[in-house]
Amino acid sequence: MTDSYLYSQTEPSRNVKVAVGATAVQLCERRLENNPRKVICIRNISPNVADIITIHLGSETAVSENGIVLKQGESFTDSTESGYACWQGQISAICATANGQTAIFER
């Protein structure tokens, strides 16, 4: 088996850094059935301890400290495994300050 064969069989993935401020932003779009999300990892890589980010799963607007709260260096991960399907819906976030940063990996 050649390396080119292995690379042609890989799935597309997303590795991005997204700024999150005091106004909610969309981190990830809803995934469709023909291209389901298999794994997602969102890490708070903000420069300051006060940059607390709240993640919201669903189409509603993210509200600070009402959802999955990530302090500096913390992360949220979800993945498909043994009959459990990873979250396929929209994901949004908001930060307690204007300086939040997230690192996102999804495939």
What does this structure look like?
The protein has one helix spanning 3-8, and strands at 14-20, 25-28, 39-44, 53-57, 68-70, 75-79, 91-95, 100-106. With 107 residues, the chain is mainly β. 25% of the residues are buried. The model has no long low-confidence stretch (mean pLDDT 91).
Termini gap: 24 Å
Order of helices and strands: HEEEEEEEE
**How does the major sheet shape up?**
4 strands, antiparallel
Helix content: under 10%
CATH A-level architecture: Sandwich
Q: Please, how many domains? A: 1
Mean pLDDT: 91
Class inferred from helices and paired strands: mainly beta
Q: Strand content of the residues, in percent?
A: 35-45%
CATH fold field value: Jelly Rolls
- What is the level 1 CATH name? Mainly Beta
> How many β-strand runs?
8
Strand order of the largest sheet: 1-8-3-6
Radius of gyration: 15 Å
Shape: globular
Determine the number of helices (DSSP H or I, runs of at least 4 residues).
1
